[in-house]
């Protein structure tokens, strides 16, 4: 058996990624991107930041400050937003830019990798908003049938 270099081993492992296999590392990534706050942050970084009752945020992806994200994502705690942003930065989906102003300005922006996931996340968010009434109706039907 021939010896493989580290690069060859990585290439072979990459070809073998299969999320249906319990030990596959891609499961960790699926777990990360299926988190509601990750989904909403990725969707929000593509919004224009203006949101009115009954309308969605739309627009081209742009940098957003932490406070903008916190306002847009109603219900997210400071701790959860910070953890989510750090994990997305670690995975290379967003970049964090610090501008030395008084006070310091920190903004977050989608990377090319994050942009490749952005449209899908906006689609998932949109699907959930569009079909929530159907899901609620189905839940009610199921609950009355099993009660």
Structure in words:
The chain has helices spanning 6-15, 26-33, 36-44, 66-72, 78-90, 112-146, and strands spanning 64-65, 94-99, 105-110. The chain has 147 residues and is mostly helical. The relative contact order is 0.12. The model is unreliable at 50-56 (pLDDT under 50).
Mean pLDDT: 86
**Quantity of strands, as a count:** 3
Main β-sheet, in a few words? Answer: 3 strands, antiparallel
Structural class: mainly alpha
Strand proportion: 5-15%
The ordered string of helix (H) and strand (E) elements is: HHHEHHEEH
The low-confidence parts are 50-56
Shape: flat
The count of helical stretches stands at: 6
- Give the N-to-C terminal Cα separation: 62 Å
Side by side, the strands of the main sheet go 1-3-2
Q: Which radius of gyration do the C-alpha atoms yield?
A: 20 Å
Helix content: 55-70%
Jot down its keywords.
147 residues, mainly alpha, 3-stranded antiparallel beta sheet, 3 strands, 56% helix, flat
């Amino acid at each position: 058996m021939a010896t493989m270099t580290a690069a060859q081993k990585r290439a072979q492992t990459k070809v073998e990624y299969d999320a249906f296999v319990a030990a596959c590392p891609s499961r960790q990534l699926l777990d990360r991107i299926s988190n509601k706050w990750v989904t909403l942050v990725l969707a929000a970084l593509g919004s224009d930041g203006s949101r009115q009752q009954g309308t969605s945020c739309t627009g081209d992806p742009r940098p957003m400050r932490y406070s903008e994200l916190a306002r847009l994502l109603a219900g997210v705690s400071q701790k959860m937003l910070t953890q989510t942003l750090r994990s997305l930065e670690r995975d290379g989906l967003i970049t964090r830019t610090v501008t030395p102003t008084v006070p310091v300005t920190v903004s977050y922006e989608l990377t090319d990798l994050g942009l490749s996931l952005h449209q899908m996340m906006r689609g998932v968010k949109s699907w959930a908003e569009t079909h929530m009434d159907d899901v609620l109706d189905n839940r009610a039907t199921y609950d009355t049938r099993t009660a």
